[in-house]
Amino acid sequence: MNRQIETNRRIPGRSMGILAACMVFWCVLILRLFQLQIIDYEYYQNKVIGNVQRTTTLKAERGEIYDTDMNKLASNYTVYRVFISPRDIESEDQAKLIATGLAEILGVDYDKVMELSKKVHRADETVMKKASDVQADAVRAFILENGLTMQIHLEATTARYYPYSTLASNVIGVVGTDGGLTGLEYQYNSFLLGESGKYITSKDGVGDEMPSKYDTYIDASNGANLVTTLNPTIQTALDKQLKQTYLDSDPLNRVTGIVMDCNTGAILAMGTYPNFDLNSPFTLDEASLEALANSGLDPSSTEYRQKQTELLYTLWRNKAVTDLYEPGSTFKIMTTAMALEEGLVTLNEQFHCSGSLRVEGYGQPIHCHKRRGHGTVTFERGLQQSCNPVLMTLGLRLGEATFYRYFQAFGYTERTGIDLPGEARSIFSPYESFNQVSLAVYSFGQTFKVTPLQQICAVAAVANGGYLMTPYVVDRIIDDDGNILMQHESDPKRQVVSTNVCQTIAGVLERGVSGDGGAKNAYVPGYKIAAKTGTSEVRDQADENGKFSYRVGSCTAFAPADDPQIAALIVVDTPMCENKYGSVVAAPYIADLMDEVLPYIGIERNYTEEELAKVQTTIKYNTVGWGTADAVYVYRYMDYEVRGTGDVITYQIPAKGQSILKNGGKIILYCGDATPMANIKVPDVVGRTASAANRILSNAGFNVIINGATNSQSTEAYVVSQSITPGTLATEASVITITVRYLDGTAN
């Protein structure tokens, strides 16, 4: 009885224990289910989806980049990503088949494909990123032939293509795997990128494809397109001149140039040389490869790779926007504008330059570039001859507060706001430490640093009547249907000086170019060019002897001087040629640039009587095979001579397409048994004055074309090159082009 009572007492205890255990079990189960279904829901859902679905990304096409005429500067073409699904490879023999086939078709490494095939838990391993159409077709045939539809896949995507290769490469920029790296490609990456789509296919429990009603398709949205202000003709002209001055002046730190619509701030052309090929952006140019080879570094070392990367980034850098330099005498335009605006000087006021000027607070006299001095000159003459003491005197008249206020107003203490990445900040003295010495040297453009872009913006403000504009490269952003998504508005930041002052300065600069000013090498027959040259010191880079002898030569110009449309600037950083003045290394190339660009934009030439004598004409006809009478008729208004007797022309010198002087050029027509003889020895005229060279070559019987400025009446230009090698034999009336320069170095 007692035992039964004791047993009965134990039953509730056991029941409670079992109940408690069950409750603990259910709590653990509920917590686990909560974790699986709530906390880790997305993780397991993705695993399930990964087993029953396959997602193919539909790449959006990157937006295209156009020039101002709607020619494509950056476009796309279709390539294919070839990838394998290791988890679907059924055997090692099948893996070997795949590796062998893809290695033969794509040229990839067999062992690499085999290694990828061993990742049996993966469904996507890339074998090749950019297969061509031909390669893709061959892969498709290989798939069908061997029944490998589950094991090998192709995904259409796009690659960037640049039709003009190097044109404006530093402006357009480089694209990497994840988007733009430099230039417009980087600046507008979010607009260009677009949004990828998806194509999701479903599979049943045994891995077979399910009906298409279970598929999901999300279309890709292409990127927006950029319409730039870049003009391909002007850009080509600029690039040509940058390359030429680079070859002629051999600078250590490259050359750069800008052409701007001075009335709107639109960048018509911007370049740096050496540049790079946008279709092969990771390839160094010859100069960089030479520098790398001469570095003495082990090609397998980390230092070598770092040097290689450094050279590559230098090549990519847009020097016009990212690099700083002292503007030198081109800044004298701004000092002049300040003084004229404040009524502190007149053009006819006389100054005396002894070769230097002492400034309170500085122990040494500050020299003019012309050490013996300019003597007594008017202010106009002093500016045209780039006299430092004259401009220092104006700076001191302005005073620190007024000068600094204009310095800020011209934009030198702020970024321009251009829509390009990497714009550098200028280096200048804060007002608190700006003193009389600063004032004196700032007045002629020394001891502060700006970007070439800042300098041309300030010059353009003087050209357009005093308005500082924000420079820009993208005019509008459009979609594929041409709808405008964004439009640039050209509003001035502020008016810095009056229009009358600007017109006065334009006249002074133009008279210096067409007369005997320091910028006379920028002269272009038939056009009024307002220009100023500059030669500044490089204070942060010593030469091999430890001396600070390096210079930067530059020239800025705007035209036509009486109705400015464009402004241009060329900067030659550390030229290693003998004559480093901006008047020699930059001004002639500005002239050649303007000579090509101004006719293109519709500015007609207006020759003086003196210029008409130097006007060239192009031979339009090849009269060989013509009747003699017909040939004589087309050249009746020119200086021609017929050699021999006969009814048919057998030879003509100069040939069709060559240029001769419109007045004074000579054409020789041969007929019958008469033939041209290469029996005249070409004289060496390099180093002679332009007039002497012209006389010598003309007397020898040649047609002479003079390339370069010969406008000054008081200074002689000298021949720096001739088109036919001296000492060779040439025929009478052959065209010899001589290139002349003023080498007096009057521009500082």
Provide a descriptive summary of the structure in words.
The chain is of the alpha+beta class. Helix content is 34%, strand content 22%. Strands 2, 3, 4, 5, 10, 18 and 19 form a 7-stranded mixed sheet that branches. Strand 14 and strand 15 form a beta hairpin.
Class from secondary-structure proportions:
alpha+beta
Global Rg: 37 Å
Gap between N and C termini: 128 Å
User: How confident overall, as mean pLDDT?
Assistant: 90
Tally of DSSP β-strands? 33
Please describe the structure with a list of short key phrases separated by commas or semicolons:
alpha+beta; 748 residues; 5-stranded antiparallel sheet; 7-stranded mixed sheet; 33 strands
Summarize, please.
This protein is of the alpha+beta class. It has 24 helices and 33 strands.
SSE map:
Elements (H helix, E strand, L loop, with lengths): L1 H38 L1 H12 E6 L6 E2 L5 E13 L7 H15 L3 H8 L7 E7 L1 H14 L5 E10 L7 H4 L2 E2 L2 E2 L2 H5 L1 H5 L3 E6 L13 E3 L6 E4 L3 H18 L5 E7 L5 E7 L12 H8 L8 H15 L2 H4 L9 H10 L8 E4 L2 E2 L8 E2 L7 E4 H6 L3 H11 L1 H10 L26 H7 L9 H12 L3 E2 L5 E5 L5 E4 L6 E2 L3 H16 L15 E8 L13 E9 L6 E8 L8 H4 L1 H14 L8 H4 L3 E3 L9 H7 L4 E5 L5 E5 L5 E3 L4 E6 L8 E2 L8 H10 L3 E5 L10 E5 L6 E2 L4 E7 L7
Parallel strand pairs: 2-10, 25-28, 30-33
Antiparallel strand pairs: 1-8, 2-3, 3-4, 3-5, 6-7, 8-9, 10-18, 11-12, 11-23, 13-16, 14-15, 17-20, 18-19, 21-22, 22-23, 24-27, 26-28, 29-32, 31-33
